[in-house]
Amino acid sequence: MPRNEYQADLVDLRQDVVAMSETVAERLEMGLTALETGDKELAGEVINGDDEINQLYLDLEKQCTDLIALQQPVAGDLRFIAASFKIITDLERIGDLATNLGEYAQTADNDIFPSVDIQKIGETTLAMLDSAMEAYAEEDRELCYTVNDRDDDLDEECEIASGTVVRELIEGEQLGDTEIEPFMEDVSRLLLTIRDLERVGDHAVNIAARALYMIDNNDELIY
Amino acid sequence: MGRERYRDRLATLRTDIVLFGELVVERYESAVAAAANGDLREADRIVRGDDEINRRYLELEGDCIDLIARNQPVAGDLRLITASFKILTDLERIGDLATNLAERTEYRSGVHPAVDIESLGLAAGEMVDAAVDAYEDDDPAACRSVAVDDDSLDSDCEATTERIIRELLAEQTAGDSDGRTVDTATRGLLTVRDIERVGDHAVNIAARTLYMLDTDDELLY
To answer: What ipTM was assigned to the predicted interfaces of this complex?
Structure first.
């Protein structure tokens, strides 16, 4: 492969990874909206769309290994391809978590505790994903650290939300026997929702950590 | 690199990943025991050992990339190397989860009474073991059985979460709630979440192994 074609392939790879992240972010947003509005059709769209993300993921993985094998890239190029290779795994997992949100939206009433603001937590995760991808696309090391710091806030928000659920359970009105079972379902789903959003944040940090390793060979955020 | 040397390096890579898997499982099982027994000394050892796991992780990742770049592997070899590359990430995360359990350990105190940490925790550990064995032995049936085990781990985790919630509702009736109840419940919920996540990583490892063996992506997502 001529040199300029190789350079063009690198540019393509970056664009394709960014495009995948946009698809994933869109699904996450749809999942959150479905939770908020109880729109079961929208929830179904998120669930059905997961196949597309999975396919995208395997295609990109192949692009990465082909580039490494055929071009034997070194230094910066190699770090870029290896980073892309890792980042797509995180994106695929965020896609899975968006699918989970779709499933919760189909099965549960997610508004049992209005004091738990799932949408706000969701917005934080979306912003983190966006910054992490910008850090990768623009090679912005500062932004990598920003995402990492943001995750501490997110973890705290999630912990407060779980604590609120626990407190509401203790302090809430007592339930009759027939009300308990559906309520338990809803509470479990809500706790899972919080857990999954926290996990989206972890994946955003993984992306930022990989981006930093790619930019500066700096592994300080990787673990 | 000569052909023979290349084959050696592939075999070494696989052995190294298996050893790394064993190291991570050992840490994780110790973390479960420490959390169950309230053993702070052991917990501290696990937290401090995470650096070693992280270092080894990046080294092995470098080995994978180096093998791809130098040998342009195709088909089965390439799948072995990419599987190894991805499995490493899962193993490193299991190490992180062991650290989480260790950090949440409280002096001479177990986890929430509704959480049977030894049984849940060890079930997840055995899944990781089984997944790493499947990778070592090229065993597709073992990959699928890890996925099956994960369904029962998930339902055990869900049942445990429900028990915590039920106890909170009972607490409410008794009217003796305080900050401690909330902390213990939150800690219990986080512990269950981490164990369930260990199971997910075991499935990822099994899924990658199956993809490596049969180009079968049924478990991959």
So the answer is: 0.84
